[in-house]
Design goal:
Layout (H helix, E strand, L loop, with lengths): L1 H12 L8 E7 L2 E7 L12 E5 L2 E11 L2 H10 L9 H12 L9 E9 L4 E6 L8 E5 L2 E5 L2 H5 L10 H9 L13 E2 L4 E6 L2 E6 L12 H18 L1
Antiparallel strand pairs: 1-2, 3-4, 4-5, 5-6, 6-10, 7-8, 7-9, 10-11
Helix pairs in contact: 2-3
């Protein structure tokens, strides 16, 4: 167990440049989570990994990013009976998962990459934002999966050999990237707009959002008004 704790610490420490404000680790049964935090909302209350106890098991979250509509979601969750102990958007994401499960990202407006260990069902759920603003990688192993915001977090674990994939190296030199792949052999990327779930049967993926093309039928004035409304909403939320 000491060696496993040291490995988790080493993996977590590789992310110190992304999260200089705080660090935390959590382990229970087959799950181990580590987090480095860049605090933006509720500095003292948003510590991670964040957990919620349920009658059927613990649900634990590590989360990177920001949910721009967390205030609206918090109100909706409060109306549904959830009680909050912090002002952080992290707790809104955690409570949102308890309420909506893997359908949560369809309600989120923001940039995010997060993983939930659902002890009620012994499964790991990894979710990335629609446009892939936040990076997210994972490495399947015979007994589970390693994951992190950057490949170096995964490579800090001896189960993941630092072996370059030749096609990945070609992509690196030509600035062309195959979605879902990394330059490291065996490593994969949680693609934008995708949920990857890992349980005893292995990983499976579901696309929850993708950009659709359709004919543009609005006139000039309507198009201008629509773009202006979208831009104003983006600026207001951020």
């Amino acid at each position: 167990m000491r060696a496993e704790a040291e490995t988790l610490d080493a993996m977590t420490e590789t992310m110190s440049c992304r999260g200089p404000d705080d660090r935390g680790t959590w382990t229970e049964g087959p799950a181990a989570l580590g987090h480095r935090r860049l605090a933006i909302i509720d500095l003292p209350g948003g510590r991670q990994p964040m957990t919620a106890e349920t009658p059927d098991g613990t649900v634990a979250l590590v989360y990177s990013g920001e949910a721009y509509n967390f205030t609206e979601l918090r109100r909706e969750l409060t109306d549904r009976g959830h009680r909050f102990s912090t002002d952080s958007d992290t707790e809104v994401v955690l409570r949102g998962y308890l309420e909506w499960g893997e359908a949560l990202p369809e309600r989120l407006n923001g940039m995010y990459a997060f993983a939930v260990w659902d002890g009620r069902h012994d499964k790991l759920v990894m979710i990335r934002d629609r446009m892939g603003i936040k990076p997210f990688y994972y490495y399947p192993t015979p007994d589970g999966v390693l994951f992190g915001s950057e490949p170096k977090a995964i490579l800090a674990n001896p189960l993941a050999p630092a072996r370059v994939r030749l096609d990945g190296l070609r992509e690196l030199f030509t600035f062309v990237k195959t979605p879902g792949h990394a330059i490291w052999d065996g490593m994969r990327e949680v693609e934008p707009g995708t949920v990857v779930t890992v349980d005893r049967s292995g990983p499976r993926r579901r696309v929850y959002w993708q950009l659709e093309t359709r004919p543009h039928t609005d006139d000039r004035d309507t198009s201008i008004a629509t773009v202006r409304s979208l831009l104003e909403d983006i600026v207001r939320r951020q």
